Amino acid sequence: MNTVKPQNIKEYKNWLKETHKIEISDRTQTYYDSVANTIKRNFEKSDFWIQLTGNLNNYSDEYFVKTGYSLFMPGFGTELNIKPFFSFLSKTFRKNIVKNAYWPNEPKDGWILPNNWYTRISDIVRTMFVVKFLDGVKFMIDKTKSVCEQCNIEECEVSYEAREDGYYAVHLRLKNEFEIPGITWDTEKIDVRIEIQITTQVQEVIRKMLHKYYEHGRERMRKEDVKWQWDYKGNEFVANYLGHILHYVEGMIMDIRKRQSEKTL
Amino acid sequence: MTKEFKLKIGAYLQDIDMPKIFRDRAFKIYEFYPEICPEEITGVFVTDFLNKDEERQYENLWFFSETFCMEAKQFITKDDFDITPIKDLKRYLRIQKKDYDFKKATEKSKMHMSFGTPAGVTCDFKASKENCDYLKQILLKYLMPNLME
After folding, report:
1. Burial (Cβ within 10 Å: 0-12, 13-18, ≥19) of residue A257
2. Contact A26 B121 (CB under 8 A)
3. pLDDT for the residue numbered A111
């Protein structure tokens, strides 16, 4: 067994080849694109997606009646996105290697490899709902779960992400069965999790601006004796604390809104 | 772009039951490739497979000239194009087939073919039903002459 820990994607690809006889080539990416596009197309036609997106105006009206504020930003639209192949592969690298506490043995739930990685990686197809205020997040979670129940979605897992790096969002992972193309000519049915991310407009702006910092930080093998919280000259210090501060500010905005509403009454 | 070849594209796409909206998309892509291919484009192929309900699913659109092949990946929904030489194919060409006698395809016929190009790219083709006969033509006309001994 190769016990030298890969430090980057190039070394990871070599490790996959040497340890698991898996070659990552241009065909791997082409096949990934084919599978991902098939999943996206089928999800777009699903009862769940049609119903959820069809109800958004109603949700907006309901929220307005309840709070006096808009739920979404003007011009908000829903779009299903496919995770780029490089990001997908990077995610398998993080799970198999960077965050694998059992290295050089397999992670707790086993290696993530081509025979299972479309099931194991949950955001190959994803979308994001961006709400204006913090309470809009819970509001949309409840609405989405309600549609899941109505459409008999097998599993709807909710994860409130509050990460050390200042990332705040809610991820809903919906499990559904999809028929994907095989390598040769067959198809197979597999369980795939579609990810719906719900976040606030402020967090979304910050995420877009600092995306590069988050991605780089995830893949870097950090030295054990360096904590970003003390490295005030580093990019992570600025980016991560900004995320935390803004989340706090959004909580304060909710408090102000509540006080204003009580004053009005 | 020749009128004759456009008619050939139309006839082929109809033969593999491609809906008009997808055929229009294929023609649109065909207008792009002569801009970058230095040779006359004379061959066309669409990779397809059947889902569990026996419905045809179209994936990638290929064009061929004497020494180039061109792929429009996921052509129905994306603009993702490439071109690579196929002259002097040195690498291994693999064919897998099912219920296909390599003479005349049936409703059950399936074929998969893959080969490597001098540029190190792997080209991958799937075909079902009558499309297997078209894939065979592509193999014999464009690939076999370019395989080195």
Report:
1. middle
2. yes
3. 97
